[in-house]
Design goal:
heterodimer; A: 300 residues; alpha/beta; seven-stranded mixed sheet; two-stranded antiparallel sheet; 12 helices; B: 183 residues; mainly alpha; 7 helices; 9% strand
């Protein structure tokens, strides 16, 4: 079973195969590879059902057959994004970038104190962080969920060690309490911290919110940190526009006010965050790589 | 990694294109382009052009689909054989790339040549050989084969034009800008 584990959906075999393909497939053959693999992804039942369930909420009135083909588009984009990510790490070749909300991005860089960049599973989180680290004048600390499979985790960590720069640090959200203190100190030193705000990993405290009319759980950490460190939260999304072309979307920053009633404070922040997230996901639903039904997560 | 910031006309840089035909077309576009200040970052890499990738992929896939239609589905009506061949071509196009990556590309590993470049050349050679074979067929497929060979010849002519222009291209690109980002 251990030997077969590498072939499971989150197994290391697929990461290695992807790396091999990126290094060996002629660039003009790549779209055919993505087209084929996106069909194979469609055989992954739980992922397909998760995307289709989410699409039903995001696009009210959409039909199951329509969402099946939309699901293909999500997988197509996902294939492109993970390949772009590997290409950047292995060959240092990135995509073209466009910007929306450049004024907020400038404001973020010009800030004296720390800030939290709240993002989602859209486009390439890693590519965005690398870009940010290259063009921003300040270092970025990225917090991400570790890979579930130990071999995959080791593989990703080795890859990360080869590509690490001074401008970008990555930490994993497993050691919640120790990491919270590290992050608080980093914010107090004036650093920028990027956290994903659309998925709750096991063992992480959560806050309820409403997303496209359904209850969804969001990680509480970024909001608690913003409140404690008194720093603003900048919504930031990476949206794939086409072949090797991405858009960095930066939303209006918001604060998590310190009120007598903490729940009310979090609720206000959650409304701001879900508004931004809904706005981007409704326009770019084919870019939201959430493979589990978000409403089910909340109910369980 | 070389980048150009905030100049949208950088998308026409010949060095963002791979095949000589596209490099030449990009050079002509860049000469006529007006400054387009726009927030953005443009990466200078020879495989960056989406249009080139899609056109070359479509051209090669459709040519392969025609070859498949005339060999595997020779008894079928063309209107049926071609649509069936197309998805098959999409999958089969990967086979020579995989075989080449496992057998030929490792021979060039010491030369630090990227595997995808070697495999691209191998596939093009295979297509040229197949086209030379089909060009002598009496059926309609000879026209497909001849267009493939004609476009290859056109690309070779474009390469002969682009090569002496390389200094002029470099000057033109330098006028627009370009900087190396952190490695």
């Amino acid at each position: 079973m251990t030997a077969l584990r590498r072939f499971l959906v989150q197994g290391v075999f697929w990461r290695q195969l992807l790396r091999w393909a990126v290094l060996n497939m002629p660039l003009w053959v790549e779209p055919t590879v993505f087209a084929t693999w996106s069909v194979i992804f469609l055989l992954w039942g739980p992922g397909r059902r998760g995307v289709m369930s989410n699409l039903k909420s995001i696009l009210p009135g959409s039909t199951a057959i329509g969402n099946f083909f939309r699901c293909y588009r999500v997988f197509w984009n996902f294939s492109n994004v993970i390949a772009d990510n590997v290409r950047y790490k292995e060959l240092r070749v990135g995509p073209d970038w466009e910007f929306t909300g450049a004024e907020y991005f400038e404001e973020l860089q010009a800030r004296e104190g720390g800030a939290i960049v709240l993002t989602a599973h859209m486009g390439s989180y890693d590519l965005g962080a690398q870009l940010f680290a290259e063009i921003a004048r300040r270092p970025l600390m990225m917090v991400r969920a570790p890979e579930a499979d130990p071999d995959t985790r080791r593989y990703e960590e080795e890859l990360h060690e080869r590509t690490v720069t001074q401008a970008l640090r990555i930490d994993f959200s497993t050691r919640a309490s120790a990491l919270a203190l590290d992050l608080l100190h980093a914010l107090q030193r004036g650093e920028i911290i990027a956290i994903q705000g659309d998925r709750v990993t096991p063992g992480i405290s959560s806050l309820p919110g409403t997303f496209f009319g359904k209850r969804m759980l969001f990680p509480a950490g970024p909001f608690a940190l913003a409140m404690t460190a008194r720093v603003p939260v900048y919504p930031l999304f990476i949206v794939r526009q086409g072949r090797r072309r991405y858009r960095l979307v930066v939303g209006k920053p918001f604060e998590v006010p310190r009120l007598h009633n903490r729940a009310e404070s979090f609720e206000r922040a959650m409304v701001e965050w879900t508004r931004e997230l809904e706005s981007v996901v409704s326009r770019s639903w084919f870019q939201w790589f959430a493979f589990q039904p978000y409403a089910d997560e909340a109910s369980s | 990694m070389r980048v150009v910031r905030d100049r949208a006309e950088a998308r026409w840089f010949p060095s963002r294109h791979n095949l000589a035909l596209f490099r030449l077309a990009a050079y002509l576009c860049l000469r006529r382009a007006r400054p387009e200040p726009r927030d953005g970052i443009f990466i200078i890499d020879r495989h960056q052009s989406a249009m080139e990738t899609w056109l070359v992929m479509s051209w090669v896939t459709m040519t392969l689909a025609c070859y498949l239609a005339t060999t595997l589905f020779v008894d079928w009506h063309l209107a049926l054989a071609l649509p069936v061949s197309l998805p098959l071509a999409v999958v089969l196009l990967e086979v020579p790339a995989i075989v080449s990556a496992l057998t030929i590309a490792p021979l060039f590993a010491r030369a630090r040549t990227n595997g995808f470049r070697v495999n691209g050349v191998v596939i093009m050679l295979l297509f040229s050989a197949a086209s030379a074979y089909f060009a002598r067929h009496p059926s309609w497929i000879r026209f497909v084969a001849w267009q493939f060979l004609a476009l290859l010849a056109l690309n070779a002519i474009a390469a002969m034009i682009v090569f002496p222009l390389r200094h002029s291209i470099a000057r033109l690109e330098a006028q627009v800008g370009g900087a190396s980002s952190a490695p």
